[in-house]
Write a structure and sequence with these properties.
The chain is mainly beta. Helix content is 13%, strand content 38%. Strands 2, 3, 4, 5, 6, 9, 10 and 11 form an 8-stranded antiparallel β-sheet that branches. A 3-stranded antiparallel β-sheet has the order 1-12-13, with no helix packed on it. Strands 7-8 form a two-stranded antiparallel ribbon.
Length: 181
Amino acid sequence: MSTSEPPASPPPAQPPARPGFADAYRSAAAALPSGTCALLAGRPAGAGGRLTAITVGSALDVSYDPPTMAVAVYSGSRMMEALDSARAFTLSVLAADQKGIAQWLGTPGQPSYGLLDGIELVPGEAGPPHLAGCAAHFEIAIDQRIEIATHTLLAGRVLACGAQPGRRPLVRWGDGYGTVG
């Protein structure tokens, strides 16, 4: 009886090593419209912790059965530091009138303390709170962490969710924001 090894995987394809390719990619990727979410992790100060948040455009609905979502976060960010010890996070799908929040949470170098001062939060059922007035929210248990290039893909089961009928989502496209519908 002979033992055979599984076929070797081909080496991963490499992007072209030509000047300006990264800029060309960035420009092409900007043509992809994306939903705009606030990712919250940690615990509110009143609950003995610190809550932190960022704006993300990389949320992905992975499966309906079981309900599963994923999001990509820059691995070197302060948010990733908070997520390293977190068991769950919340995604708030920002509404069209929450552009200012998207810009505030998306500005690099925001302070860790007081970041969410003045932003109304709704307590979570099973995870961190979500932003009041958002179009929808998802509380997600972190089941997998996958390192991909400069980011970490966090995937997990949806523990709780809700939507606000009639609230249009904020969409990012290119350098600007808009809505659909």
